[in-house]
Amino acid sequence: MRAQFVLSEIGVGLRRNLTMTFAVIVSVALSLALFGGALLMREQVSTMKDYWYDKVNVSIFLCNKTDAASSPKCAKGAVTKQQREQITADLKKMDIVENVIHETAEEAFKHYKEQYGDTAIASVITPDQMQESIRVKLKDPEKYKVVATAFAGRDGIESVQDQRSILETLFNMMRSVNYAAVALMLLMLVIALMLIINTVRVSAFSRRRETGIMRLVGASSFYIQMPFIMEAAFSGLIGGAFACVLLVAGRYFLVDHGLNLAEQMPLVNFIGWDVVLAQLPLVIVIGLLMPSVAAFIALRKYLKV
């Protein structure tokens, strides 16, 4: 009987405040969708880092005849065979180095033509202008500075470059987008909480006569508050469900279909469906608990009979 009464009160409250309930659902859905999107963006950045950092190398560019005339670091002339062999030997002795590959100027020229053969500048580039290099695969890409410190400035070396720096711009941009999403999510969350509190206040005011009678006949505070809390929880649950739909639809239409980013950007290792689905229970739980707690706090102030 009590459960039937609570459910009937929930229905009455939702019908009386239908517009505000709808606003709460939309606000919760958008804020939780942004929350889930921020989580997925963080996972995407982490996945891309693990994927690309495992593939990038440290490149040690050696001096050639052109560099000897234009670069102060190559003032002593082009790299000699002895210098190149010594650099390679010293690299192989380092514990952090996994693999060392020497790329000649001719090989560098061939790779350049394969990638940029259609450009105007490619027609005037000659093999002797290309730099031979030593590609170093590290066991831990984070220890690039160890190699840079040990070899930068040595005779025959023009520069030491970490290919991770090329990716940092992309990762920084993705982090900025993630921060913007979090900021917008917090704004929407504040709006949703304000709407929940206002909805609870209006609902409590419109039913003050009923709650007063319940208090007089000995109903407990928890029993009186339960319909209001359940109304907020129901709205939050619906909003959380919509947020999950938005997240799944976003992954489906952006990556797999629609824009089909997975096919258009084959070099990007997108997060899988398992990562997306793993975030949905958290979104649902937050959607259920957040309005309930907000309603409980609001009732302590507005449900005074």
From TrEMBL:
Every ABC3 transporter permease C-terminal domain range: 183-304
Family annotation (Pfam families): FtsX, FtsX_ECD
Places the protein is found: Cell membrane
Domain FtsX extracellular, chain residue ranges per copy: 56-160
UniProt keyword annotations, A-Z: Cell cycle, Cell division, Cell membrane, Membrane, Transmembrane, Transmembrane helix
Membrane topology: Multi-pass membrane protein
Source domain of life: Bacteria
Family matches, as InterPro entries: ABC3_permease_C, FtsX, FtsX_actino, FtsX_ECD
Main location group: membrane
Database matches in NCBIfam families: FtsX_actino
SUBUNIT field: Forms a membrane-associated complex with FtsE.
PANTHER family: CELL DIVISION PROTEIN FTSX (PTHR47755)
Role summary: Part of the ABC transporter FtsEX involved in cellular division.
Family: Belongs to the ABC-4 integral membrane protein family. FtsX subfamily.
Protein name: Cell division protein FtsX
Organism: Streptomyces roseolus
